[in-house]
């Protein structure tokens, strides 16, 4: 039997949090709501989710599920690659005429979402989507001729010339949620994700605690202890000199808007710790690199396969399985490379400078194609 109380469906993707979640915020204002996460294990049309990211995803979803259940809000787990049909069935089943989601910008997701939005609107469903994963949406930054901006410094200067990114939304104020029961959940999806995350040979649980609470606490601790020295220390080979927020940003357990405004607020506040303006600038510039990569991927969808500069396609690189394996296992005999690669295999992370060193070593020293390194990073990194 379908519920008589109309409710809003919120489609969660890379926004696994409550604070500054525009879709959840607006849905909560409307009244009853349900949330859904669609797990597409085969990732039809794109590369499968990496091993380390699957571990993170499972724990992140569990954490959000616990948060939402405190308000009696179902997080329905579904699986499959036909998101339109899954969403439509849920809307019908819950007698919901409205769906909200936060926008994704990776080419596959963006195109899929546009097509789903169009089809749902044709079925008289109200669809609202919100800016979320980036501070500057990819189409807002352009050259004088209207094309994508290819050079980072030009890109970032243009971002800085625009109005400040919007302020973060508060945690949603959920009204008495009684009408929507979790009747369509597929327990097998939780079981499958749990299994995939248990099969993980890495030791991620010794280093990481996924979830929104941890994300906020990491941000606070970074502002208190490390932001001031960021300009001098951000390129160190140690992990605790930077914010370590990349996986939390990747899964949307914290939003870039929250990070942006928190660091700016800390640096303008009279309260200690004081923050050097160069450190603030450099940290915002790092967030800018994240924006830039999203901008490039949006405009150049084949970037994961092809060289950004076509002249680099001429490089004489070839797959040598022995060299590749020595790099992957951290057995090249070069201590800094080996330390980085072993850290990656255990903790799923590497500081930025070390990522550059090992990547450069693979391509320029071992002469192995960068795509092989990118594949390995994809399977091991928790922020890929
Ligand atoms: C070969 C290579 C592969 C990389 N792969 C990834 C990846 O898969 N996912 C990923 O998030 N980052 C990637 N980076 C960028 C960068 O190394 C990480 O974002 C950073 O090390 C994360 O640590 P942090 O959160 O402490 O960063 P902080 O220094 O605290 O920076 C804050 C945030 O800014 C963003 N950021 C910082 N530097 C960069 C950068 N150079 N490019 C893009 N965003 C940046 C991240 O979201 C980061 O969390 C890669 C860099 C290299 C050289």
Automatic annotation (TrEMBL):
* Keyword presence, Flavoprotein: yes
Instruction: Report the GO terms under cellular component.
Output: cytoplasm; nucleus
User: Per the entry, which co-factors are needed?
Assistant: FAD
Q: Name one GO biological process term.
A: response to stress
Co-factor remark: Binds 1 FAD per subunit.
Q: Which family does it belong to?
A: Belongs to the DNA photolyase class-1 family.
Name the UniProt record assigns to this protein: Photolyase/cryptochrome alpha/beta domain-containing protein
């Amino acid at each position: 039997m379908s519920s008589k109380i109309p409710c809003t469906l919120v489609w969660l993707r890379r926004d696994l949090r409550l604070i500054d979640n525009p879709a959840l915020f607006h849905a909560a204002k409307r009244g009853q709501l349900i949330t859904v996460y669609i797990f597409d294990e085969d990732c039809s049309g794109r590369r499968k989710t990496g091993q380390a990211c699957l571990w993170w995803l499972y724990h992140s979803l569990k954490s959000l599920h616990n948060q939402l259940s405190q308000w009696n809000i179902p997080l329905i787990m579904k699986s499959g690659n036909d998101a339109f049909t899954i969403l439509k069935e849920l809307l019908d089943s819950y007698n919901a005429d409205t769906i909200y989601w936060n926008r994704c910008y990776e080419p596959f997701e963006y195109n899929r979402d546009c097509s789903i939005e169009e089809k749902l609107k044709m079925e008289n469903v109200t669809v609202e989507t919100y800016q979320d994963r980036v501070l500057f949406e990819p189409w807002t930054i352009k050259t004088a001729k209207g094309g994508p901006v290819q050079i980072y410094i030009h890109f970032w200067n243009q971002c800085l010339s625009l109005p400040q990114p919007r302020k973060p939304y508060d945690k949603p104020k959920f009204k008495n949620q009684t009408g929507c029961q979790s009747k369509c959940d597929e327990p097998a999806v939780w079981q499958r994700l749990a299994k995939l995350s248990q099969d993980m040979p890495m030791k991620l649980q010794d280093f990481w605690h996924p979830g929104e609470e941890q994300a906020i606490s990491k941000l606070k601790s970074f502002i208190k202890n490390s932001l001031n020295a960021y300009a001098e220390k951000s390129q160190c080979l140690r992990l605790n000199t930077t914010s370590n927020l990349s996986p939390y940003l990747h899964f949307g357990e914290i939003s870039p808007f929250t990070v942006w405004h928190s660091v700016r607020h800390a640096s303008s506040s009279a309260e200690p710790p004081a923050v050097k303006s160069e450190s603030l600038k450099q940290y915002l510039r790092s967030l800018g690199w994240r924006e830039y990569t999203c901008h490039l991927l949006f405009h150049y969808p084949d970037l994961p396969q092809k060289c950004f500069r076509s002249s680099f396609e001429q490089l004489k690189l070839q797959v040598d399985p022995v060299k590749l394996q020595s790099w992957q296992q951290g057995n090249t005999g070069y201590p800094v490379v080996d330390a980085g690669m072993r850290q990656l295999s255990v903790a799923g992370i590497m500081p930025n400078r070390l990522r550059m060193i090992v990547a450069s070593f693979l391509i320029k020293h071992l002469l192995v194609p960068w795509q092989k390194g990118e594949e390995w990073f994809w399977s091991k990194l928790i922020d890929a």
